[in-house]
Task: inverse folding
């Protein structure tokens, strides 16, 4: 189903409750009554077309790649990606850790043994994710924002200075997403295939549910970077290189 | 677990979508991307290891870039999507040919037979139990040794170590070293105490 501006915001969430975390990133909370998506977006000063693209892309992965997202300023996309980061770090990961720690408190040694293995694995995953995110936030995103500004200025002198100042190009931005995704996949496989949960099965189901949601959201995030952000940054970079004769 | 990646490349969005739905129902096909022109195809090929392209007659005949890929990319399998029963132009060969007017069963069985013939051609172990040798290698991997070090320890070549590791990953469905380590401890191949820290 393709989401449109005249749909009620509440209906959107009712049909896919995972979108709750998406609207949260836009600063929208529940209690939205019968208002349409257009009305809610206007109230929160969100460009409704942008909101629709994000929601549709999340709802239906094959909705990508979208030509429409190309028409939005990069800073809008970057600021959305920033918010997805805090969703992972401040909400999802602590929640998964809390569930695993619950198992660590068990009185059965075998439960503790298995849970501590999973906990260690998950910790290596999260520290890798944190590094990746820190790099994006400190280096990659600021570079992109600056690049867009310089590109929009259409001023050769400004471009020249920028190129001298920033040696970085987007190609150097190592794509370690893949290994990160593989770790998450492995945690899931290990739990599903090789853990005998005994009485703790409900906690394991919850952990799997949370990991699955995190995985889905990260995939969506990666798609947006690979299919929208990176190609546009490349385009701007090559424009700059032509203009500055590099 | 197979990872057969297909791109459907026709000028029609509706046709592409249709093929995507059909192909996704076929066992062994892991990912179907769609592209309507050369630029979209290239964007996909930049990121993924494409094994097969199903291309329409029109795009192959009219787009020089696509034709060039057809002529030069040797490790990609090609399928042709036609909307006519006419004879093919000379000089073209295809691994598979599908007519859009064929019925569902015919299209499905043609594609799935083809995919099966490809994926079974790749020799991979079918059993899931690790051999004693593989357990040895897994243990060393879990302890953090490199392929070179494992080879030295077990008196086998690095090449053999890599082959064992491939089989282990295939049998267990676990790709990362951290994941293999957890498996090794869970199954008592190594003791928790043997690990200084998990990588």
Result:
């Amino acid at each position: 189903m393709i989401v449109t501006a005249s749909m009620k915001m509440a209906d959107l969430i009712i049909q896919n409750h995972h979108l709750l975390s998406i609207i949260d990133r836009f600063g929208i909370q529940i209690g939205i009554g019968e208002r349409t998506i257009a009305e809610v977006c206007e109230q929160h000063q969100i460009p409704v077309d942008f909101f629709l693209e994000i929601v549709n892309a999340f709802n239906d992965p094959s909705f990508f790649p979208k030509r429409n997202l190309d028409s939005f300023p990069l800073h809008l996309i970057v600021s959305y990606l920033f918010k997805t980061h805090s969703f992972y770090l401040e909400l999802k990961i602590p929640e998964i850790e809390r569930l695993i720690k619950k198992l660590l408190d068990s009185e059965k040694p075998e439960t503790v043994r298995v849970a501590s293995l999973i906990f260690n694995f998950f910790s290596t995953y999260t520290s890798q994710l944190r590094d990746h995110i820190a790099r994006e936030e400190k280096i990659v995103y600021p570079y992109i924002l600056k690049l867009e500004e310089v590109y929009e200025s259409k001023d050769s002198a400004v471009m020249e200075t920028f190129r001298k100042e920033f040696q970085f190009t987007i190609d150097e931005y190592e794509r370690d997403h893949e290994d990160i995704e593989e770790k998450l996949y492995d945690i899931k496989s290990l739990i599903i295939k090789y853990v005998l949960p005994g009485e703790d099965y409900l906690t394991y189901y919850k952990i799997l549910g949370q990991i699955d949601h995190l995985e889905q959201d990260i995939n969506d995030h990666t798609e947006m970077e690979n299919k929208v952000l990176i190609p546009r940054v490349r385009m701007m970079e090559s424009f700059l290189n032509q203009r500055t004769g590099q | 677990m197979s990872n057969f990646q297909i791109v459907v490349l026709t000028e029609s969005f509706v046709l592409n979508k249709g093929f995507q739905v059909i192909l996704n129902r076929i066992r062994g096909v892991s990912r179907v991307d769609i592209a309507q022109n050369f630029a979209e195809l290239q964007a996909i090929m930049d990121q993924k290891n494409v094994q097969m392209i199903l291309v329409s007659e029109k795009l192959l005949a009219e787009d020089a870039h696509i034709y060039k890929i057809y002529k030069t990319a040797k490790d990609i399998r090609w399928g042709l999507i036609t909307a006519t029963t006419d004879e093919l132009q000379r000089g073209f060969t295809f691994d598979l040919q599908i007519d859009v007017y064929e019925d569902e069963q015919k299209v499905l069985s043609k594609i799935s037979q083809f995919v099966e013939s490809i994926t079974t051609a790749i020799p991979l172990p079918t059993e899931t139990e690790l051999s004693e040798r593989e357990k040895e290698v897994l243990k060393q991997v879990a302890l953090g040794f490199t392929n070179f070090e494992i080879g030295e320890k077990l008196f086998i070549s690095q090449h053999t170590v890599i082959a064992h590791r491939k089989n282990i990953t295939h049998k267990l469905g676990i790709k990362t070293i951290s994941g293999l380590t957890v498996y090794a401890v869970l199954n008592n191949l190594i003791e928790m105490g043997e690990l200084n820290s998990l990588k």
The CA atoms of residues 82 and 99 of chain B lie 5 Å apart.
